[in-house]
Protein 1
Amino acid sequence: MVFIKLGFCLVLGLALSACSGGAAPKSASSDPPPGKGKGFDHDPFPSTYRPYPAVPTAIVGATVYDGEGGRIANGTVVLADGKVTGVGGSELAVPAGAKVIDAKGKWVTPGIIDVHSHLGDYPSPAVKSHQDGNEMTNPVTAQVWAEHSVWPQDPGFSRALVNGGVTTLQILPGSANLFGGRSVTLKNVSSRTMQGMKFPGAPYGLKMACGENPKRVYGDKGREPSTRMGNIAVDRQTWMKAVEYKRKWDKYEQEGGTAPDRDAAMDTLMGVLNGEILVHNHCYRADEMALVIDMAKEFGYRVTAFHHAVEAYKIADLLKAAGVCSAVWADWYGFKMESYDGIPENLGILEKTGACVMIHSDDQNGIQRLNQEVAKGLASARRAGIEIRDATAWRWLAINPARALGIADRTGSLKPGKMADVVLWNGDPFSVYTRPEKVWIDGALLYDAFDPRLRPVSDFELGQPGEGDVK
C-alpha cells in the first residue's frame, strides 16, 4: 500500500477525504476521449486521476505572469471548482466566501510543465533495481510504454512540486533506442498508482532518438545500427512496416472482414501516422534534425518537438517552417561530441526567430530549478542584444510545453476555464533566492511553505532515518 502524508493525516489513497473534513475528491474535469479506430482498445490503461478537494481562492496584489506572455501588476487570480475563473487587475471582484491570499510583493504564474522527465522510471534512490527507463534489447522498442515503469513513490515527484513548482510533466523512455517507446503525461500529485497521476485525455508521445546513443549502444554489441546512416536506415525500414500495417487496418476498418494480426510496436507507430500519438525526438545536431524533418515528410508524420536540440539555433527558420518545437537546456552542452556546438543564446535566438521553444530538465535535480534555468537563458540572450521580456520567457515554462504535449487547451496559462494549476512565488521567480510558497493543482492547495501539514511525502520516505539518526 502507498500512504501519502497530507496534513497531519496519513491518507490511504482510497480515503483522500479524511484530511478534507469528509469532502470526497471531485470527478475529473474532462474524461479521456474514447480510443479512435476499430478492432482494439486504444486506451487500455485509462487515467483514474481525480482532483483533490479545493476551496474557492483569490490571490490578490501579486505580479502575474499569465504564461502566454502577459503581465499584470497588482493582479488578482481567482480559482474555483478546480478552474481559473478570473484573472485581472485590482479591480477584479473577489467572489463572496473565497479564501483571500494577500500576495503583495510576490508573483503568481501557471504551474511549470516539464516536457522531458524520467521521474518514476529513473527514480531516487538511483539503484540498479530502480533503473527502468531504457529497454536496451533492440533499437526498435516502440511496444514499451514508459507508464509501465513509473514508480509513484519516487521522492523526486514531491521535490519537483515543492522546490520547482512543477505541476505537470511528461515521463519519457530513455534514448538508447531509435524508437524508445511511448511517453506518458502526469499531473504531479500523490497517488498509489500511475493511473491516478495520469493527465486525463493527454495524448501519448513516442520517444525517438538520433545520433550517438543508438549507434553506441548497438554498435558496441556488434549490431545494427552502428553509424548515423544505419540509424536512418533502420528508422526508414521501420516506418515502411508501419505504413503497411496502417494500410491493412485502414482496409479492415473500411471493408470489414478478418482483423489483421496485432503488433504492439506497430500499434504505436500507426498511432503516430493517425495523428493520435505525438513524436518527441531526442536530437542534438542541426543536420540530423533536418534529416528527420524530411523523413517525417516522407512517411506522413510530424515531429512535435526535438529534445535537447543544442544546435537548433542553426536551423531556427527550418524548425519554424515545419512547426517543430525545440525543448532545450540553458547551458548544458559540450559533454559529448554531438553536444559540442551548443551556445547559451539558443533559447533567445529561437524565440527571436519566432520558433516554438521551451526549457526542459532531463534530470531529477534540474527539474527543481527550471525557473532559474530560464533566467540563465534570458541573461544570455540579453547579453547578446536579444531583448526578451520576463513575461514572454514564462511561455518557455508553461504554454509552449503545454502545446508540445497537446494539452494547451486545458493548462499552461492563467486563462478562465483552464485547470487551476498555479504557483505563488515568494519573490521574483527568476531570482535564485525565490522559492514556491504555495502550489495548487486543479485548484487544490497541495503545498504551503508555512503549513507543515501540506508538504507531500511519499510512503517510501515515511519512517526513513534522517541525517544524524543512523548510529
Note: Residues 228-255 form the longest helix (28 residues).
Protein 2
Amino acid sequence: MKYSGLLFANLFRKKVRLTLTIGSFAAALFLFTFLAVVKSAFSRGVEVASADRLDVINRTSIIQPLPIAYRDKMLTIPGIKAITHDNWFGGIYQDEKNFFPQFAIDIENQRQVFPEMVLPDDQWQTFLKDRQGAIAGARTAKRFGWKIGDRIPLKTSFYGWPSSWEFNLDGIYHSTRPGGDESQFWLQYKYFDESMPADQKGLAGWYIIRLDNPDDAARVARAVDTMFANSNYETKTETESAFAAGWVKQFGNIEFLILTIGSVVFFTLLLVTGNTMAIAVRERTAELAVLKAVGFSDRAVLVMVLAESILVSVVGGGLGLLFAALAVPVIASALNGLLPDLVVSYATLLAGVGFALGVGALSGLIPAIGAMRLRVVDALRRV
C-alpha cells in the first residue's frame, strides 16, 4: 500500500485513455455475464431433469400425438412406477407476447410423476372438482399478478378453435427443486378432449414415465419403443435430461455460439488492454529508470505495472457485472417469457470476477516483465 500514491498517479496520467479502457472492460464483462446467463437459462432444464423420468413422444415429431391406449400397454413393462400424459394447449393471454407453457394434464397421475411440483391439497381437490379449473406455476402467477379465484381468459386457434376459453385459478404450485420449472399452466385433459375435433379425440401429446429405479432407464426406453415398433404411432423414448437437451438444440448450438463469442471478447480485450499497458510503460521509460536508480527493485517495478493492469480490470469488470446484475432482470421482463428465466447467479458473478482478473493479469504481464528487465543505462539513453 505504500506505493498506492504512485500507482494512482500513473493511472490518472491519461484520464481519457483510462476511461476508455475501463469502459471496454465494463462492456466486455456485461457481454460475458449476459451470455453466461443465457447459457445457464437454456441448460437449466437439463440440470434439473429427473433421473427417474422418461419422455415418450411420437417418433415422427413431438407435434404428432400418441393414442391414450398406449398408457395401459406401457404399464405392463416392469420397472414403471407411474405414467402421465400432457397435451400442448397453445393459448394466448391478453397479448401474443405473453408466452407461457400451457398443458392439458392427466389429473389422476400428474402428481405421482412430478412429486417436486407441490401445492396444498385443498387447492388440488378444488381443481379436481372444477371442470374449468386451472393450476399455475408460482413464477407465472407472480408475473401476471394472478391470485387464487381469478378468472383467466385464454384465446387459441391451435386446434382450429376460434373461441375464447376461461379458467378458474384453483391453485398455485411451487417447485421443491432449486431452479425448478414454475412457469407452467395446467388444465384438465378431459375438459380439453371434449372440445377436440372427432378425429383428434383420445390422443395424448406425449407421455412421461416415472421409473422405480433410474438404472432401468435404458431398458425401459428400449422396451417401450420395441412395443410400438412398426405401428401407426411409433415412439421415441429418452431420459428427461436427453429430451431437454434435444429441445435446447432446436434453438441451435447455444453453447458453441457463446464459447465462440466469449473467446473473441477475451482475446480482443486482452489485446486492447495489453496494448494500452505497453504504451503506458513506454511513455514512462525515463521514470522507471529513475525509480530503479533510486533503489526500487525489479520486483517492485513488476508488481506496480501488474497492479495497474489488474486494478483497471477489476474496476471495469466490477462496473460491467453491476450493470449486468441490474439490466438482466429488466431484459428478462421485456422478453415476456420468450426465453427461460434469466438469473444472474453468484457463480456467474464469481466467474466474471475471475475473467476480469485473468485478463488484467495476462494483459499486464508482458509490459510488466519488460519494465522489470529494463536497464537504467539503456532507458536513460532513449530519453
Note: The longest strand covers residues 164-175.
Protein 3
Amino acid sequence: MSKPNENSVKEWMLIVDKKPLSGSLNMAVDDFLFRSLSSESQTYLRFYRWERPTVSLGYSQDILKVVDVEYCQKQGIDIVRRMTGGKLVLHHKEVTYSLCSSDKETFTSTLAESYRLISQALMRGFEKMGLKSYLADAPPDSYVRGNLPCFSYPARDEIEVEGKKIVGSAQKRAGSKFIQHGSIPLEEDAGFLGPVSFLKKEASKGRMISLSQALGKKVSFDWTVEHLTSAISEFFKVSFKPKVFDAEEKEIILKIKEERYANKDWTYSIRPDPINQRG
C-alpha cells in the first residue's frame, strides 16, 4: 500500500459520539466540521451512531425514485439527505465515520487519491481485526447510472471482504478541503433495505457483508472504533486530540440542522448533479 509522508507526526482532532444521534443531527455535525475547516492544514475524524434506522440519500438523488417514503413513515425510519453524492444508504446497526480535511500534503488535491488513501487506512483496521480485505474494481455502468442502493455494488476503491462490500463511502470536495463519510455495518439490516429502496430481496443477496458476519462473532461499536482509530493513526502517522464542542459550536450545529437537514425542502427537493463528489 502507498503511504503518506512519514517525516512528521501530525495531530488530528478526534470525535467519538458513543451516544446515538438523530439523522439530521449527525448530518449537521459533519456539515459543521466541513465548514469549519480553515485554509491551513486541519483534519477531523469522527465516529458516530444512529438513534434509529435512517435512510440517507445522496445529494442529487430523486427521493421518489429511490425511497418508499410511505413505508419509512409507517416503520418509523428517518430520511435525511447528505451533503455528499453517492447512493442510498440504510444506517442502522453500524459504525459511521467521517473524515474532514484541508491537509493537501497528506491527501493531495485529487478526489480519487484521497478516497483510496482512506480506504487503505480502513483496510489496515480490518487487518487488525483479523480480516483480509481488498479494494474493488469499477462497478457495472448499470449501477453507476441506476438507482440501486449503495451496498448493491462496491464502487472503485471501496473495500470488499470475501467478495462482498463491507464499507460504503461518499465524498465531497471544495477546493483544498473535503469531507468523506462512510457506513460500516456491524450487523445485518433486519430486512429493512429492500422495502425502503424498492429493491427486490434477491437483487441484493450476497453483495454486502456486515463486520459480525465476516468475523463470525458479534462485535461492538467501541471495539470497532478502537481498531479503526489505531489503524488510521498508524497509517497516516498522526496522533489524535479529543475534540469537544463548546456552547457556541453546538448552537451553530443546531442551526445547521434546522435550516438544512431537518428541513423537508432540503430532503425532498431534486438537486443538480454534484461536482467534485463521488460515492
Note: Residues 58 and 85 are 4 Å apart (CA to CA).
Protein 4
Amino acid sequence: MLPILTELEPTVAGLLDRHLAATKEWFPHEVVPWSQGRDFDPAEAWDPDEHPVPDAVRSALYVNLLTEDNLPYYFSTINRMFGADGAWGTWARRWTAEEGRHSIVIRDYLTITRAIDPRALERARMAQVECGEVPEPETPQDGFAYVALQELATRIAHHNTGKLLTDKAGYDVMKKVASDENRHYLFYRDMVSAALEVDPSGTVIAIERQVRNFEMPGTGIMDFEAHAKAIAKAGIYDFAVHHDQILQPVVLRHWGIEQLEGLDAEAEKARAALVKRIGRIGKAGHRFAARRDEAKQQELASV
C-alpha cells in the first residue's frame, strides 16, 4: 500500500463509520410503480407516446442509467487504487453494494413505464459494458479528486432529471439514487480535505489535473455527444451547473484552494492554472445559460 493510503486509513475508517451511521436502508422494489407494467410482445414496436417524456429527459435517463451500468469497471479501478484490505477495502465493497441498486431501480422504472425503448437501451448497455471505458487516475489523490467531482456531478444529474419527471414514482426513484450519490460525494470530498493536509502540493496538482480533464459522467456511451447536448440544453447538467454547484462551492470554498499555504513551485503553478480555469468555465457556462434562457423566452413569446 502506498504511504499516503496507509496514513489516510484511519480517516477512511472514520468516514466509513460516519457514512454507515447516516445511511438509511431502502429497497428498489418499493419505489418502482409495478402496477403500470404489462407484458412485452416481441412483435410490438416501442411507442414513445405510451409514456410521454421530453427528449432531453429521456437522454438524461439513458445516460444516467448507462453510467450506473459501468459499475464493474469503476469498482475495478477503485479496488486497484486503494486495495482490498482494511478500511479501504471495506469502503470499496460497501460503495459497490450501494451503487449496484441504482441500475436496478432505474432500469425497473424505465422498463415498467416504457419511458425508453427497452431494446435500444439493452443494446446500449451491452456496448457500454463491453467497452468498459472509465477514467484511470494516476495517483490516489487523483482518484479522490475525480470521484468526489464525479459523485457530485452524478448526484446533480440524477436530482435534476427527477425534477423534470412528471410522475411521482420517477421523481422518487431519482431522489433515492441521488441521496446515495450525495453520501458517496461527502465521503470523497472529505477524503480530499484530509489528503490536502497530508500532501497539499501533490493533492493540488491532482485536483488541477482532474478539473482540467473532467468530463460529464457517461463518456463512452453510444451517441453520448448528442445526449450531452440535449441534457445541457435542458439545464440538467451544463458548464454553468458544473461551475456553480461543483467548482465554486467544493474546489474553491470547501477545499480552500486559494488559501492553502506551503505549496511547492509545481503546485503553485497548478493552483494558478486551476483558479484561472474555473473562472473561464464560469464565464463560458453563464454565457451559454443566458443564450439558452433567451432562446426559450423567444420560443414562448412566439407561441
Note: The chain has a mean pLDDT of 93.
